[in-house]
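Reopening this one. Same input as before:
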Amino acid sequence: MLSRTADSLFWLNRYMERADGILLVTRTTYISVLDKGISESLTWRPLLEIYTNCTEEEITSLENNTSEVLKKVILDVENTNSLKTLINRARENARGVQDHITKEVWENVNHMYHMINNPSLAKQLLTEHSLETIDLFSKQTVLYAGVTDITMPRGSGWNFMNLGKYIERCLETLEITNREFETIDYELSNQQDILYWRYMLLSLSGYELHLKTYRSSNNNQSVLHQAIINPNFTRSVIYSLTRLSRYLEDVVKENESEENQALIRYFGRLYSYVKFIDFDTLDAVILQQFLEKVKTELLEFSKRLGQNFFSYS
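Same output, byte for byte:
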């Protein structure tokens, strides 16, 4: 497979995974800011900090303005992480590799492209139907995931697509987790009730699973456990890393080289660092360092992957 083809497939899935993530966080925040009984202090600030490059002054002016925030994160093409930017880039990558994706995958991405570029969309986001519009796009990203899983052949293209998907998913979980634990200064002993963690868990599609799985009164510890090392939670860090390990091994089998073996070893150290973390030793300092280190090393892994397989300099 040509490096530019692998690169396009990698970023197609990465952009679509990020689009799914931003829609999930947007929907959660939209509902939560209206529910002042549960989230008195919740504003749009966390979403703006994660998905925009706004300055502190801009965030302060926008954090309570729902309509302006929706325009910023959904339609603003100057925002590199807006939904419109992500879908446009995903479609550009899909268009260049139509011979390597199925007709169904292309049609789904192309349909979302026309949806996000509909001239009437801006008006819809200003009405009482804005949540319905967000839900409509969310359903399309779920449909994309299903169509891709059902129709794509299991070969090199599939492997590169999933490397992009799980790198993006893991980074998003780390970012959301880090920001939420930062609000309590990473103090696991500073106990919060489950409603405090509701926003974070809903943003990761993990609230219901948490209620069904965890019985401990130590909510800080159980929420962190779910986000980081619960192997049955599809958005946990360890779940994403396990999937990355599998797809990385598959692509390296087809491209044996010393550089790729070094990449396997680098990833293996990162994987082991997370897999064997001792939760009993975590304190505020160690937890902050742990989250930052995993994010930094995952970004480095992504960079090395690009250098090895996509001819990045």
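So the earlier flakiness isn't reproducible anymore. For the record, Residues 3-34 form the longest helix (32 residues).
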